Amino acid sequence: MESRHFAAARIVTLALGFLVLLPPSGSQAATTGHAKMVTWSCSGTPCPWGPRTSNPALVWPAALSPLTRRLGYETSAPVYLPARAAMGVKITVNRGRARIYAGPRSATSHRILATLAAGQSHRIDRLYSDEVVSVQADTAFRYTIARSKVPARPLPKQKEIVRCADTRSCEVVESVTAYWRCTGSDCSWAAWVGHVVSWPWWAAYESNDRFGFHSRTVYSAQGDTLYPYMAAWADGCQVTAVTGRVLIVEWQRGTDEWRETLLAPGETHVIDLVDSEDSALIESPDNGSAFSVRLNNCEPKPRGGGTYAGQVPLREVLIETRSPCARRASRRRADTAAFEHERWSPSPFTGASAPYSSLSS
Fold first, then answer.
1. Final residue of a structural domain among 96, 124, 148
2. pTM over 0.90, yes/no
């Protein structure tokens, strides 16, 4: 029979052994893996990135209850982690590069929390309750995620902000996906792809007015014409980046020279056209993603001068008040009338413009 001394020693030993097995307060459970190629497939509305797109992304463990839906898309694997599960998560990139995004699932663009190279980490400590987190890249990467045992709560949902692509009615203007299709003499090159702020047809131009294979007209993913090239009224327009990286191009349409200003979220630039410059463009940088901006003193004006006395131009009235078939016919007649008007305008160039990618390629 054990003596009381040895029995006590055994109890202490067992207790110490038990304590060793317990994880210390605030410890983390780590998971290592590699990014998978994930596909976003359009299954509803809206689908601003086209019917289908793919890129490498971190697929979250099922135990965290990740999601597969955003906007009108369904992802082939769960890449969106709700804020309540993402708070306190530490993400380390072991190989390659990746970006951590956060935002509401109803938003067309998400802000970048961090861009990580191999060996770098980021702990998620500030999210709003309606946001989701994703980790994506252009190429493959390996990662480690560690969850903190210390509970953390996301911030209350942000005040609702009016977000849309209409430059005249939205508090925050979101970019649209743009395709610069060749309209010049040598069209063997594929379309340039990016994101832009598009303006009313009567206030901006749809092409860059350049020559050869640099001559491009801008279209949406659905094939509609976009008008990203602001006319001279852009002078004095104040642009503040809200989400994503924003490139502002100031130039003279049709030329091969321009000035560019890159904005990170929170930064502001006032467009200042100098000398012969007569146009500006708000777009994503090369290989950039969707973005959103706040605009001040950017009221669009007729690109050929004159005024509409604050009223919607006749063309927009015709298009918006008729049946779908009548709208198409009205658009054709209005396009023809606009072309005939511009043929005889003093300017030798008529409707053309493109984003920085279209300028620099």
1. 148
2. no
- Domain assignment present for residue 174? The answer is yes
- Tell me the C-alpha distance between 322 and 235, whole Å: 35
The domain total for the chain is 2
Same-domain pairing of 244 and 356: yes
Domain-embedded: residue 135? yes
Distance CA 6, CA 295 (A): 78
Measure CA of the first residue to CA of the last residue in the chain; give whole Å. Answer: 88
Asked whether residue 128 is assigned to any structural domain, the reply reads yes
CA distance 253 to 276: 9
Per-residue tokens: 254: 């049709």
CB-CB neighbours of 322 under 10 Å: 14
| 73 and 127, same domain (yes or no) | yes
Tens of pLDDT, residue by residue over 140-189, are 999 999 987 655 667 666 655 566 778 877 888 999 999 999 887 777 77
pLDDT digit string (tens) for 24-66?
444 456 899 999 999 999 999 889 888 999 999 999 999 999 9
Domain-located, residue 311: no
The domain containing residue 41 runs over which residues? 28-148
| Claim to verify: residue 140 and residue 178 sit in the same structural domain | no
